[in-house]
Amino acid sequence: MSGTAARMVTGAGAGAVTGTxxxxxxxxxxxxxxxxxxxxxxxxxxTGPGEPFEDLDAAFARAxxxxxxxxxxxxxxxxxxxxxxxxxxxxxxxxxxGYASRVxxxxxxxxxxxxxxxxxxxxxxxxxxxxxxxxxxxWEYQQSPAFAADRAWYDALQAVDPEDRLxxxxxxxxDLVDLxxxxxxxxxxxxxxxxxxxxxxxxxxxxxxVEDPVVELxxxxxxxxxxxxxxxxxxxxxxxxxxxxxTAMRGLPRNxxxxxxxxxxYGVLDDLVREFALRGDPADFPQAxxxxxxxxxxxxxxxxxxxxxxxxxxxxxxxxxxxxxYVHDWCDPQAVDxxxxxxxxxxxxxxxxxxxxxxxxxxxxxARLGIPLVLGEGWVGYTPRGTRFEEGPVGAQxxxxxxxxxxxxxxxxxxxxxxxAPQHAMWQDDELQxxxxxxxxxxxxxxxxx
Length: 450
Description:
TIM Barrel; eight-stranded parallel β-sheet; 10 strands; 38% helix; globular
């Protein structure tokens, strides 16, 4: 570990590393518990006028005010260090034609141009100023390139042999740490993930498809982690998984140094996805039923809704399916909320049990491997942007339950909710976030958590 890495992150921790986190090998200069706000790729694609990250310093100040001490981001490692592209004037913006403009995470309003490397360094300098730490990941094989003005980034990613993609990402993350070390900022880094949700995106290309992709990805992941750790053995590196892959935990990489999982429990939201074929064949989409139950008057037909022809590649650069984008874009948010609330009662107990059991299973396997556990996203699932099911009273209680479970199992870090970030409406719920970040960091009693 370099000299700068041995320095404390001022104000970032709630005391020294103790208990489960210390036993799991968290470096002493890092916070004992991470209360994480999920800035993903939004922190650089949404920097235009009036956008949530127009002023990074203000975003950090707000996060600290709400009790957060960590941000989790796409650090653009492939783009910056392995693409060969000039990133000094990276042009970013909406997908185009209004497509996905009312979809969470996709609702970029303003075009912007950034010097990507300089912007990354400003993120770390901002974190340092505000006493926060940064979890560096990558969304590049899932969504990030879809917001670029041209397809060069996407094409560079696809040009890498699928067998080598995680190794290249591991090397790119090592290059990132080299840059941070040279700039005296490596102490701000909490840990790295080769990629977000490794089993849900273009990293699975070319796998046999015989077993769960978590199992089939293990060799690729182990090579990626090894490539990173050979150059930076003092920095934690580990996988990040969509959901908690409870039937495939045998696929966890044996050289992981941290385990990141996303306990999205879905439940009633699964009904919506399944009944409207949101993640299936568009030919199975029940247009008439959607018109009656979900959509706003005047919505175009599913087959009529698409990005401009010259931007069609952006749909391939993203993993969200066409029917899901369409419903999120054209739904009546209140109608969707009513749909979910009317059916929630039949799922309430099962959703609560899945949340508790998934977090418990993840904690057991992290303990078996002797590594820290991080709940990097959660809890209900991917809801339309204008809905308030997860931000409302049901979702808020799920947040409270989840952070209590995280604290109970000794997780090193947890989000309050994936939607508790500057680009989402929950960012305005001060009381809920302060209550939950205090639980995550161990600075408040759980009396209100039931």
